[in-house]
């Protein structure tokens, strides 16, 4: 999936993937897509909830070995 920005949050534990995602999302325009790579297993539920509460849309997520990948469209 095409993204406008890539955030490498691998090796970070809660709450840092969400903190870094929020900061990166602030640099994007509405409608742009942020791709996040994380290794924290809790990132799936954390980023899903964060996107919903912030008015953003989780477009897709997948697991690539130990790396969780997310694509969030800025609302």
UniProtKB/TrEMBL annotation:
Transmembrane segments: none annotated. InterPro entries: TusA-like, TusA-like_sf. Pfam families: TusA (PF01206). SUPFAM superfamilies: SirA-like. Residues 7-31 form the UPF0033 domain. PANTHER family: SULFUR CARRIER PROTEIN YEDF-RELATED (PTHR33279). Belongs to the sulfur carrier protein TusA family. This is UPF0033 domain-containing protein.
């Amino acid at each position: 999936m095409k993204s406008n920005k890539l955030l490498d949050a691998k090796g970070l534990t809660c709450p840092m993937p969400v903190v870094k995602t929020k900061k990166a999302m602030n640099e994007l325009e509405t409608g742009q897509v942020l791709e996040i790579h994380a290794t924290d297993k809790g990132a799936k539920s954390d980023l899903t909830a964060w996107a919903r509460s912030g008015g953003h849309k989780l477009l897709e997520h997948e697991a690539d070995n130990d790396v969780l990948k997310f694509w969030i469209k800025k609302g």
